[in-house]
């Protein structure tokens, strides 16, 4: 009888091993600036080289995400102490190849009438360029390919941006090219190759002494950045319509520009217009969803083939190329998060719990028929704060913890990260496939396991090829690297 028992135990152990799910990613080690007693202040993923650049207070580190190793760790001396109070470290932008950084808001770069910026070589720490146009540089933006650097005298475009001065610099030689002034800007866009600059303009208005920019009398202009030549002007002024230029969308391949115009009195006359960026000034097509366009946002699928529009209680999905209606989904709102993949729409609903805590629920829908595929509760915690001064006005709530979604490049799985967790789920079913990072478990006096309440994660994301996952620790000192397990 002893032999059968041994065999049975072996079979049970073997079946237990077989029943364990195969991991999606494997731990390849913990890296970062903890080895030199430093903290990570900035990081940038370098797509072309598949590398991760870490910049700290005193050191720089470069990680190879193909072979999961440290390429270099060396001292770096950046002028953090020279940063003015109205700027922060996030204003220092890094080129796409990780070689250069634009430094804005330095005290030594400010004179009586001018605020210049510097570009430094991160390898040598030498200043290789001084940016002097316009007189005040508040933002610097690199094109996706790194061949153009754009500077502005405003940190962003908002309803109070009445005059925006934009300058263009060669992203490699930093030779000054041209400057453009945009009056009453409502929206801007720099093409991925840096060769085109788009800007929408509205009309300045006054509301009880407060001047702001409205969508009225709108138009969109496209310039060639190398010459400042005005390539095209799209006039969308119409006394019967209000064009939602703040919600313009460009397709991922930069072939189409999409915009909604809302009728001022008859909602059933609302239209969506599509222009070919390489075409003429007239729309390629326009569609008139019925009964109306409720939310003027446009959500384009990741592959750019489709876009979704809110039509009241329903959602309509169109082909981007032709404007042909593909499907109408009933009782589905315009996705608040977007497309989880090319076939799945993701909504995140706010679910209040009590006065201090609040929750969010992710709902995934099939974009072909509107079926609810799964729901998932997300970490989202806010703290309501109040001002007990004479105004008694509440301050904005403080976000204590919120979930970030990162779809995998394959779009078959997605990652969620919050302060405490990093988890991987199946995009179609919502099934939890792997918990990558979680707080340690402790045991109470009764021996029951409980998860500790400490923060573990500050951010996480995938490499462009999807073969690596990097997770930054909450203490901003280390980053763990994970390798995708090939099937």
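^ Assign residues to that structure.
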């Amino acid at each position: 009888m002893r032999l059968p028992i041994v065999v049975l135990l072996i079979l049970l152990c073997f079946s237990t091993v077989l029943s364990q799910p195969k991991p999606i990613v494997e731990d390849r080690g913990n890296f970062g600036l903890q080895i030199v007693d430093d903290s990570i202040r900035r990081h940038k993923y370098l797509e072309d080289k598949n590398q991760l650049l870490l910049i700290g207070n005193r050191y720089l580190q470069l990680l190879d995400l193909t072979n999961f190793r440290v390429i270099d760790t060396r001292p770096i001396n950046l002028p953090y102490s020279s940063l003015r109070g109205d700027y922060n470290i996030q204003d220092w932008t890094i080129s796409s190849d990780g070689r250069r950084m634009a430094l804005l808001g330095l005290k030594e770069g400010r004179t009586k009438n001018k605020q210049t910026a510097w570009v430094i070589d991160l390898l040598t720490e030498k200043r290789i360029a001084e940016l002097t146009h316009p007189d005040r540089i508040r933002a610097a933006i690199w094109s996706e390919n790194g061949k153009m650097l754009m500077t502005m005298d405003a940190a962003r475009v908002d309803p109070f941006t009445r005059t925006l001065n934009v300058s263009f610099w060669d992203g490699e030689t930093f030779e000054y090219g041209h400057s453009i002034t945009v009056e009453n800007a409502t929206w801007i866009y720099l093409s991925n190759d840096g060769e085109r600059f788009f800007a929408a303009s509205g009309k300045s208005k006054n509301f009880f002494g407060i001047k702001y920019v409205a969508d009225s009398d709108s138009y969109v202009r496209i310039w060639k950045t190398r010459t400042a030549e005005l390539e095209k002007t799209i006039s969308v002024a119409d006394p019967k319509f209000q064009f939602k230029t703040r919600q313009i969308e460009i397709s991922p391949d930069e072939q189409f520009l999409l915009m909604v115009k809302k009728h001022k009195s008859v909602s059933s006359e609302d239209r969506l217009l599509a222009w070919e960026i390489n075409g003429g000034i007239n729309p390629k097509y326009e569609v008139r969803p019925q009964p109306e366009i409720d939310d003027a946002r446009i959500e384009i699928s990741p592959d750019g083939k489709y876009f979704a529009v809110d039509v009241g209680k329903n959602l309509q999905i169109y082909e981007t190329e032709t404007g042909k209606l593909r499907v109408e989904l009933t009782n589905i709102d315009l996705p608040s998060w977007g497309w989880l993949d090319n076939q799945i729409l993701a909504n995140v609903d706010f679910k209040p719990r009590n006065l201090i805590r609040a929750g969010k629920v992710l709902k995934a829908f099939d974009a072909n028929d509107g079926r609810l595929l799964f729901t998932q509760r997300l970490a989202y915690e806010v703290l309501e704060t109040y001002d007990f001064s004479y105004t008694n006005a509440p301050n904005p709530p403080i976000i204590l913890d919120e979930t970030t979604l990162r779809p995998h490049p394959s779009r078959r799985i997605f990652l969620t990260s919050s302060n405490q967790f990093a988890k991987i789920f199946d995009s179609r079913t919502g099934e939890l496939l792997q918990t990558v990072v979680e707080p340690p478990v402790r045991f109470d006096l009764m021996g029951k396991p409980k998860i500790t309440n400490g923060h573990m994660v500050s951010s996480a994301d995938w490499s462009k090829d999807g073969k690596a996952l990097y997770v930054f620790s909450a203490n901003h000192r280390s980053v763990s690297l994970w390798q995708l397990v090939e099937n």
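The two ends are 41 Å apart (CA to CA).
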